[in-house]
From TrEMBL:
Entries under InterPro entries matching the protein: MFS_dom, MFS_sugar_transport-like, MFS_trans_sf, Sugar_transporter_CS
Upper lineage: Bacteria, Pseudomonadati, Bacteroidota, Chitinophagia, Chitinophagales
GO molecular function, a single term: transmembrane transporter activity
Protein name, as recorded: MHS family MFS transporter
Domain Major facilitator superfamily (MFS) profile span(s) in chain numbering: 13-505
Principal localisation: membrane
Length: 507
């Protein structure tokens, strides 16, 4: 039976655990937030799409190794304790993040640059694989059983808040310098990586003062801790069945909903809708700010009515509404469907001519603004043949700045997606904790969580861009991956998950 921690003490536990976990998510996400800039710095020039795909592949690699970190640190957590294990993961994460900020660019050290970044990214992934399970388990084992959803939901906010802090820091740095200074080899984009070492130092100090979880301390005192957590977690049929059910009936769908609502949305706004850098991040910041309280709300609600249907309905809503939401993004900026009044040039057109096989390629870049709030840049490309004739120009809108009504419409559309995230993510920590016995909980819950999030979820941006590149006729083709995965998870969860699990049964 879980012995609840005093109310004042549980909030100290939550604050200490959440602080460290937030910083680890911040470290992990600044790489994704800066993917476009990083692709220029660590890969050769000449093919921007290939460089961005390579950067997103490195980003995804950090997710793919998270299950291995779950096994490594989950085993340590069940053998030596929760506190010291996720203290170790914090040190590894902070060190790797700081060092990424010190790696010279491709122009300085060639192919060694992306190799070093990949290695450090793998260390980040391993560390994060051990962090979440430790923090969620630690908080759950201090909480009274009938409030586990509420208390662990604060840990669930840290991933989104880490993204919020990452966005805020990047915008603050970028606003203080020119684009050229920010994007230079040793420019401002490195500052968020360097800042990590200070944040981690504060978190380590806080975590050093924490005590071991009471449930694990009791097991250890009684000599009942697991001798081989990996074997007990995955070779015992009943427990392994619960691992598979947790993965395919809950966290697989939760993972793709999470990364679609935040990373895919940001990437889509930047690379498809072509919104200006600062405004696309500001849209995401507002949406996150408005949605974050719902993590706690749905965690609290899951204590009252059960975890299952809250999570599954969140997945179903994503399946039903993703394509309409993203269609609305595109139609809102379609130049044939919107009225742009009194357009004026705001900068002298920049013309670049390059020789081609049939003559010369002329690229003209012109910036415009209108009296009803629109601002954008048009890049037109035309081929001038040797006989003097000119082909039809190819036009691309980029760096759009949305007028106020459209800006808030986009905030609403991103908010809806993050609201779906709060439904599936808010209750999931308590759900996973209650599936597994205390002595193998860290290992057993960490693996399905990090496969669902790290592999299925983490691949959303990469697979989305890959599908869009392979099938350019459909700008929404990248959404089919999260839609199919979430739909499959909904069916499995609806058929096989229990809505009520006795919260004391595995303590």
């Amino acid at each position: 039976m879980n012995q609840p921690t005093a109310s004042s003490s549980i909030w100290k536990v939550i604050a200490a655990s959440s602080m460290g976990t937030l910083i680890e998510w911040y470290d992990f996400y600044i790489f994704g937030m800066l993917a476009k800039t990083i692709s220029v710095q660590f890969f050769p020039e000449g093919n921007d799409v290939a460089a961005l795909l390579s950067t997103l592949a490195i980003f995804a690699a950090g997710f793919i190794v998270r299950p291995f970190g779950a096994l490594l640190f989950g085993r340590l957590g069940d053998l030596i304790g929760r506190k010291y294990t996720f203290l170790l993961t914090l040190v590894l994460m902070g060190s790797a993040t700081f060092l990424i900020g010190l790696v010279p660019g491709y122009k300085s050290i060639g192919v060694l640059a992306p190799i070093l970044v990949l290695l450090l990214r793998l260390i980040q992934g391993l560390a994060l694989g051990g962090e979440y399970g430790g923090a969620a388990t630690y908080v759950a084992e201090h909480a009274p059983a009938n409030k586990r959803g509420l208390y662990t939901s604060w840990i669930q906010t840290t991933a989104t808040l880490g993204l919020f802090v990452a966005l805020g820091v990047i915008l603050l740095v970028k606003s203080s310098m020119s684009n050229e200074a920010f994007d230079a080899e040793w420019g401002g984009w490195r500052y968020p990586f360097w800042l990590s070492i200070l944040l981690v130092g504060v978190s380590i100090y806080i975590r050093m003062k924490m005590k071991e979880s009471p449930l694990f301390a009791k097991l250890k005192h009684e000599g009942k801790t697991s001798v081989n957590p990996l074997k007990e977690s995955f070779s015992h049929k009943a427990n392994f069945k619960m691992v598979l059910l947790a993965l395919f009936g809950a966290v697989m769908g939760q993972g793709v909903i999470w990364y679609t609502g935040q990373f895919y949305a940001q990437n889509f706004l930047e690379t498809r809708v072509m919104i200006e850098f600062g405004q696309s991040r500001t849209i995401l910041l507002w949406a996150i700010l408005f949605a974050t309280p719902f993590f706690v709300f749905f965690g609290w609600l899951s204590d009252k009515i059960g975890r299952k249907w809250i999570m599954l309905i969140g997945m179903l809503l994503g399946v039903l509404f993703y394509r309409p939401i993203y269609s609305s993004f595109l139609s809102s900026v379609d130049p044939d469907k919107i009225e742009i009044v009194d357009v004026k040039e705001t900068a002298t057109p920049k013309v670049v001519a390059e020789p081609s096989a049939t003559g010369s390629l002329r690229t003209t870049t012109t910036s415009y603004a209108s009296t009803n709030g629109w601002a954008y840049t048009v890049v037109s490309k035309e081929t001038i043949k040797q006989d003097g004739s000119v082909t039809t120009a190819q036009m691309q809108y980029k760096d759009r700045v949305l007028p106020t009504p459209v800006f808030w419409k986009f905030v609403w559309l991103v908010f809806i997606q993050i609201f779906f995230v709060t439904m599936v993510y808010g209750p999931v920590a308590a759900f996973l904790v209650e599936l597994f016995p205390t002595k193998i909980r860290y290992t057993s819950m960490s693996l399905p969580y990090h496969i669902g999030n790290g592999v299925f979820g983490g691949l959303v941006p990469f697979i989305g861009l890959l599908l869009t590149t392979s099938f350019p006729a459909d700008p929404l083709v990248g959404l089919w991956y999260p839609i199919i995965v979430a739909a499959l998870c909904f069916v499995i969860g609806a058929l096989y998950l229990n809505n009520k699990i006795d919260p004391n049964v595995n303590d």
